[in-house]
Amino acid sequence: MNVNIHPSWKNVLKTEFNEPYFASLAGFVKQEYSNHTCYPKGKEIFSAFDHSAFDATKVVIIGQDPYHGPNQANGLCFSVKDGIAHPPSLINIFKEIQQDLGLTYPKSGNLERWAEQGVLLLNATLTVRAHRAGSHQNKGWERFTDAVIKTLSREKEGLIFLLWGGFAKRKASLIDQSKHHILQSGHPSPLSANKGYWFGNRHFSQTNELLKGMGKEPIAW
């Protein structure tokens, strides 16, 4: 696995890349991509980091697994490539933005536009085998992405972490809440959203109010 990652991240994560577990993980990923169809494309595995440099990151959204259908995953959690039908969770994210901020529902589900503004869209597991959800879990990715969260917490101040659903909420223990902001709600998946755990969380307006309060540019969601 070629660790093609933005230089700002490569510097702060270099100790992780030198850990034995990461070499094992890289071997596993290389073998999977050689023998099976996997997502996202190899060059997009670290897209979240490439689009949101370490110094520029001010909001963190944590997902679990990349989409495992054809042409969906682009390396950013909840995001799909241009022209791809929006998955149910993404539809509910956009619906909440509509309600919260009065914005028009967007045509594209590609969230690179958020990432370029400093929103790190981090999946806990960065790869997956086609049509097999969770197939690359417990191979080392979670250790790596937990290290990312801990590094952000330690090295930066005033980050806003959006933790949606039980899996993401468990990452709160990795974050120093004395110097960062955490907003939690149910997951945007229909199962959770339709029970009333997602809609009305107003995380997008709250995030922008927090950013403005810190003298930072709000996100154009």
Secondary structure layout:
Layout: H1 7-12, H2 14-17, H3 20-35, E1 38-39, H4 47-51, E2 59-63, H5 88-101, H6 112-115, E3 119-123, E4 128-129, H7 141-155, E5 160-164, H8 165-169, E6 181-185, H9 190-193, H10 203-213
Parallel strand pairs: 2-3, 2-5, 5-6
Antiparallel strand pairs: 1-4
Describe the structure.
- This protein has helices at residues 7-12, 14-17, 20-35, 47-51, 88-101, 112-115, 141-155, 165-169, 190-193, 203-213, and strands spanning 38-39, 59-63, 119-123, 128-129, 160-164, 181-185.
- It has one domain (7-214): Uracil-DNA Glycosylase, subunit E, CATH 3.40.470.10.
- It has 221 residues and is of the alpha/beta class.
- The chain starts with 6 loop residues before the first helix and ends in an 8-residue tail after the last helix.
- It is 38% helix and 11% strand.
- The strands form 2 sheets. It has a 4-stranded parallel sheet. A two-stranded antiparallel sheet has the order 1-4.
- The protein has 10 helices and 6 strands, in the order αααβαβααββαβαβαα.
How many helices?
A: 10
Write the element-wise H/E pattern from the N-terminal end onward: HHHEHEHHEEHEHEHH
Counting DSSP E segments of at least 2 residues, the number of strands comes to 6
Structural class: alpha/beta
EC number: 3.2.2.27
Protein name: Uracil-DNA glycosylase
Catalytic activity: Hydrolyzes single-stranded DNA or mismatched double-stranded DNA and polynucleotides, releasing free uracil
Main location: cytoplasm
